[in-house]
Amino acid sequence: MSTERASRHRTALVTGASGGIGKGIAEAAARDGWHLVLSARSTRDIDAFAEDWRRRYGVQVTALAQDLSKPGGADALFDAVMARGIVIDCLVNNAGIGVYGEFIDTSLDEELAMLRLNVEAPTVLAKRFLPQLVERGGHILNIASTASFPPGPFLAVYYGSKAYLRSWSEGIAEELAPRGVDVTAFCPGPVRTQFADRANAKRSALFRAGHLPDGDEVGRAAWQACMQGRRLVVHGALNKVQVFAMRFTPRTWLAKIVRRVSRPV
Q1: Catalytic residues, which ones?
Q2: Poorest-confidence range of 16-25, 34-43, 133-142, 202-211?
Q3: If pLDDT is split at 50, 70 and 90, which confidence band does 229 have?
Q4: Per-domain residue ranges for the chain?
């Protein structure tokens, strides 16, 4: 049975879907015949491509404006989906931001907003939608990061948030497997998106490396991993090698290495 036929009339909710990895995931799902609920702080960019996807892929696209970094934002998104009578088969927790700089200098308010978006929102949305996902044999796709493996000077709270997302994903994946729900933690490295601009991290050596994959490429790979039911996926051959090497590197050394590659230049 083709992927499209198997997924006909199924619906994926993708957060942070106005661009980057989220848009890449959403289009991969639409190409496979999935209806979409796309969430972002503003629906302006979503509206720009939604009609094209409806015409090309024959799917329904619902755009919902919601800032998940605000207190109560995740519950508000859940309520908005329920109010429209939409049932979710796949929850994609993609929305995320970073705050760059030394912890002593960075803004506490910005970091608390980041934790609401990176940690609280995925947890709340998974908790709220799980009854539907269990009933329908659904999927959860959490976009973590290779930053979830080492300590992260200059992006310490961001690295910590992604470590939570990866560890939590692996834990609930084991719990939910007997209930028929797949959970995937997908870990890309640096990606050519607006993330570095929003995090004020363009001055970091981390984002001045050579070729970086774009959001479409990473999004397609993430969707494929989700549909295959894989629990933990590191994207990219070099990233896989680096993560493997971290197993044998003392944590204090890792911190020094990350400090060097993340430093301002």
Answers
A1: 158, 162
A2: 202-211
A3: very high
A4: 3-262
Report the b/e string of 3-22 with b at 16+ CB within 10 A: eeeebeebbbbbbbbbebbb
Nearby residues of 257 by Cβ (< 8 Å), 6 or more positions away: 150, 249
Which pLDDT value is given to residue 205?
Answer: 62
Closest by Cα among 136, 135, 162 to 150:
162
Alpha carbon separation from 69 to 83, 153, 172, 184, 212 (Å, rounded): 21, 23, 23, 22, 27
Residue 230 is encoded by which pair of tokens? 């894989």
The class level of CATH for 3-262 reads alpha beta
